[in-house]
Amino acid sequence: MFRTDTEPLLIRPSEFRDVRELITLDHLIWNEDTAPAALSWRSSEEYLLHAPPGSQLVALKGGSLCGYLGFGCPTSHRCNRHVYEIYIAVHPDWQRQGVGSSLIEAMKKLAAEADVRKLRLRALSCNVQALAFYRKCGFTEEGRLREEFYLAGRYVDEVFMSYRLV
């Protein structure tokens, strides 16, 4: 990936034109260390059913997609609309350079403007770097499903974390 560190980081809602780069990033990021199963999108149409335009914030630098943060209500119930479930992916070339933190901060602002009170996420216990990152961003553990997955010859917990906006 061509890096232009002098360019400012741009964060905006995802658009149809981002689909190819988002699929590429998903195939690069989501594996047995980061998800219960690798993501493998067969087409842009399949991807768009999962993540329609506007359901993600994308981070771009110099026109290159550095990462994204997906969000949405975890259920269709009206009584659950004050909660967003999020997931985040940052290209390895851009990790530890503030992209993820910038996406989280942008999400906190967007959620507050939408009267969302809580952000929640799930992570694998083996993804120690991600858990540390979420804690650094103010997320706290709410619960854990012990030995929820058997991945790469080991049992792995699913960790539930949240950030309260109010």
UniProtKB/TrEMBL annotation:
Keywords: Acyltransferase, Transferase. GO terms for molecular function: acyltransferase activity, transferring groups other than amino-acyl groups. Transmembrane segments: none annotated. It comes from the Bacteria. PROSITE patterns: GNAT. Signal peptide: none annotated. This is GNAT family acetyltransferase.
